[in-house]
Structure formats: structure tokens, C-alpha cells
Amino acid sequence: MVDIKPIAKKSSSNLVVISNRGACTFKETPQGIKAIPSISGLVSALLPVLDIEGGSWIAWGGRYGKESEVIGNSLAISSNDSKFIFHEVMLTREEVELYYNGFSNSCLWPLCHNFIEKAVFKEEYWKAYCEVNKKYSSVFLKTAGLEDWVWVHDYHLALLPGYIRKSRPHARVALFWHIPFPPPEIFNVIPWSKEIIRGMLESQLIGFHSPKYVQNFIQTAKEIAGAEVDFINGYIYCSGRKIKVITAPIGIDWHEIRDLAKNNQIIQKAAEIRKAAGGEYLLLGVDRLDYTKGIIERLKAVSWLLKNHSQYRSKLTFIQIAAPSRENNSAYQKLRHQVEETIGYLNGIFTENYHVPIRYIFKSLDKSELVAHYLAADMALVTPLKDGMNLVAKEYVAANDKDIGVLLLSSFAGAASQLKGALISNPYNTRETSAQIIKGLKMSLIEKKQRLAAMNRVVKEQDIYWWWQKFQQSWREASRGKCLMETL
Ligand code: GDG
Known about the structure:
With 488 residues, the protein is an alpha/beta fold. Helix content is 43%, strand content 23%.
């Protein structure tokens, strides 16, 4: 639980983070409003930044408001030592349905992850998306100062930089895009692609996880918005403005994970998990339950392995932790059924001597429990069909710095271009994925250590604070000549 305290403003020039969901979800209880931590890669990444910078976070708090309500609670939230102010955007049930479940998660999310056939294009989704982006802008205008640095996050709020600039032409606005950015021939399928690109281009700086997404975005701006571009230096020229586009691969709080992994209680918990799982080898998957994460394809690879290498049947256990996600969306409800049906089917076939090979946890665990699982597992199967970055891969590596473990990583995760010590597979290739699992299980201790050490060098050095430094340095350069925030 996160503490909620009365608000206190920090200075005249603050960092303002704006994202669809924030650090927590508000729940009304007889004792008052309680804040429950949210689970997502974006939240894991931004909390440490707000911990050091303070400032404010504008986001939807998970509560439904009336049509006329725009802003809800403004509360100081203390996470670890520092405080930031959470300004709650109020959305109606219909807005959440059309803007969040609709345009964001049924159109942009599948399309940016190359699932064109899953993308739904509805005029009413688009209208709600525009209206809700305006709503976020009016909460910003009500709560933020003229000197503030506005950091917009992710695909839910692509139009927000444009709305902000209309009211504050000199605003310092940057955008970070957490998911993949597809090539123009895919992005252009969206009937409103031009409006989206133009909205994004009202930022001073736009960041992506990988050079490929940067290239795709610049090419899209050129083709769709007719902008002049400079691929080599990462500049887009549009409406008399110069926009910088950078690669900034997001990191994790390496020391936080490492400290948890050194904790005796967590080490003890890891031993208990291993004992309870039974067998000799423990494989682990940790994901939000999302079709982009490749859980079904992973299960197929485990099944292929158990079918074709029967000696592993009573020796191998695969734990899949699936954090509930987007439960109101029918594609996610269907996926849950499919995952649960597949696991039941496979356990029916492959249970031998009462050893159940696949364990399934459909809930969100505490971070300490999560780290205990990272420590317990011989190998993490991080095999998304497409992923902007994937922080689970980095957390597994950090937890196992001084221990042994193997990371199997999808070639389609952004993390694959940074984590060279991982075993790589194409998650659509069942045979290859299961062969890589066997390779990991048979890997020598020395090779495991070498690979982990190489990956830890990157994950430790390019951690979340490095990411924020890199981003703010480019932001400072992109705003050169203007008044700078003292902390930047
Ligand atoms: C998006 C992009 C990009 C998971 N289960 C539990 C739990 N988690 C935490 C993990 C990790 C986070 O959630 C998931 O982050 P990912 O990066 O793996 O995935 P997305 O949520 O899809 O994130 C992604 C990210 O944004 C950042 O830019 O990397 O590509 O899709 O931190 O630890 N945390 C807890 N209990 C769980 O059961 N406490």
C-alpha cells in the first residue's frame, strides 16, 4: 500500500509526468481512499524517476467520474523517501470503454505490435480518444505551472502534445513511446494516422527503446506528415519546429532488485518455491496476461520438449505467473480461457508419477515474491511475439547477478538488442524455442556465469537512472535557449 498525504508543492519549475494510469489505483473504502500499486512496465520505470525528482503525475486513478468531472483527487503520494503529487484525471465509464479499451487497446496496441488483424477501427473510439486526450490537457493546464517540464508517456496520449501546445505554445513537452513503433506501411493502416503523427510532432523530443523504432517513426513522419527529416542526426522538421528523436532503452532499478535478491527471507522463499515445484529443473515465465507476450507459443514449446524428450517429464517444472491485465477486453478474456485450457490439457497428458509439469499463477505477486521466483528458476522464458523492451528479462538478470540462471529471450523483444548474453529464439518457431530450452538446461556453469556477467554489466550500467539522465540531457539540448528546470 502507498501512503497518501496532504499535498505540498515543490518549486516553480517541476517535472510533470502524464500517463494513462499512474503509480496506483484508488479504491474507496470505509476508512477513506486507499491507493493500491499498479502493475506495468511503465509504472516500474517511472516510480524511481519521480522518487528522485519529485514533481507531479497526472493519470487516471481507476475510478469512474460523471461527465462534467475532469479532475478528482490531488494527493501527495510517498513512495520510499520522496513525495510527488498525484493529480487524478476523472473518466466516465463510457470514456474508459471507448478511449482505453477501444482506441488504445483494441486499435493502437495490436497495430503497433504487428497484429493488424486484431486492430479495430471505429469512429466512436477515435472521437473518445480525442476527447480524453483533451481532458488530460485540461487537467495539465489546471495544475501545472508555465515553467514546468511536461513528460507525456505512451500510446494512449499521442495527441496530448498537440493539445498542450495549442494552449501553451512555448511549453516544454517531451514524449516517450513505451511500445514498438511499426514501419509506415503498418502505421498508415490507421485511418487517423496523420492526426496521430502530427499530435506527437508537437513534442520537442520523442524517445523510443530501439533504433529500429526511431527509424520507423522518422520514416512515418516523412511519408505520412510530409515532414522533412534527418535520419542520421535524428531530427524532424515540421510546422517551423525542429523535433529531436532519440533511442533511449529503458532500464530497471538494478540495485533495488539486487538488494531484494540478497535478502535472506527472499533466498529462503526461493528455496521453498523450488521444493514445492518438485523436479530437477525449474523454468519461469512472468508476464501480464497479454497476447503479445507469447504465452501460448511458449506452452507449445514446453509441450514439444516434453513430447519429444520424455526423460524431462518428471524432472522439469514450468511456472507461469500471469498478472491479470485488461480484463474487460474480450481479446484478453479469450486469451485467459485459451491459456488455462492449454495448461489443463498439457498437464493431463504430461503428468508422470504425480509430478505436474506446468504450474500457473493468475494473480499479481509482491515484488519480493517475484524476485524469489527469479532466484528459484534455472531459466526464464521471456518469449514475447513482440515487445517494446521487456523489463522482466532485465529483472531476472539483475536478481541472478551472483547466482546462476539462463535467460531465453525472444528475438522480437526490444531487450534482445541489449542483452547479448541471452539465448535467443523466434517464439513462433516451436522446435527452435524448445531446442534453446534444452541448450539452457544443459549449459555449463561457467558459460552461465559468463553470459550473466555480460548481461549484468549492461543492465547495471544502463539502469533506470541512466535512462532518465540520457533522456533529460537530450531534452535539455532540445530546449536550449529556454529557461531550464533547476533539477535538469
Ligand atoms: C510496457 C511495454 C516495456 C509483472 N508481474 C508482476 C509484476 N510485474 C512487473 C514486472 C515488470 C512489469 O510488471 C512488466 O514490464 P514489461 O516491460 O515486461 O511489460 P509491459 O507491462 O507490457 O510494459 C514493454 C515497458 O512498458 C517499459 O517501457 O518494457 O515493452 O510493453 O516490472 O516486474 N510486478 C509485481 N507483481 C507481479 O505479479 N509486483
